Hints:
Blueprint: E1 5-7, E2 17-22, E3 43-48, H1 65-76, E4 84-89, H2 91-105, E5 112-116, H3 132-142, H4 147-151, H5 153-172, E6 185-190, H6 198-202, E7 212-217, H7 228-242
Parallel strand pairs: 2-3, 2-4, 4-5, 5-6, 6-7
Antiparallel strand pairs: 1-3
Helix pairs in contact: 1-2
Amino acid sequence: MRPWFRRYGPAGREAATRLVCLPHAGGAASLFRTWGGYLPPEVDLLATCYPGRQERIGEACRDRMDVLADEIADALLPLSDLPLALFGHSMGASVAHEVALRLNRAGAPPAALFVSARQPPHRLEARPEVDDGSIVDDVLRLDPDSAVALRDPHLRELVLPALRADYRLVAGYRPGPLPLLDVPVTAYFGSEDPDVSPAEMREWASVTTGEFRSRGFPGGHFYLTPHQAALVGDLAARLSAWSGQRRPGQVRPSRIRATEGR
């Protein structure tokens, strides 16, 4: 499971579903460290550890979507003995969608996809690569709580490499037409998010032939922090409703895809 995933909470025999969470640009697995307290024992909570941060600080960051999604999907295949549900916030929503497509192609489709605070693929607009100052300004605009780390010179130098790589990944991600999923998709959003509108979030319905739902919360891009209990409670209720409806298929022992440039 390591180094890609960190388990928050016990994984007992009662576990029936794995909820795999993928953080935002510059984010880390610790974003989800308290979620286990709001989930029933039937849900095994795994937070994704991107390279280049926390205990993987010494590894090279990934700055291409295809490379990152390939590696995460490869790491998840051995864990698909239970149905996998994916939750991604902001950049993590795009990563979760790409991972879901790869799992589907490998014969282990996810049980559900949850996306948060990110436009669907067909709505993504071109973004130029930006310098460090612009990255810091953008992060502070969306998440003022990050000011402590970004204004401390030592901490800033620790977090900037991951931010640079993630912003490069986002700028270079132009997916074009993608295959449809056939899984339930739920879109979550903050009603005052300056980067994505409720209407854009509802357009995630176009990525699946399965059931689609959306739910908004008061707040901006990081609405999920003050509304953590309500958000995770909603996730748990939906997972319970869908539990057992889809089971993963036979998983090939091979990797998802050998991507050039690793």
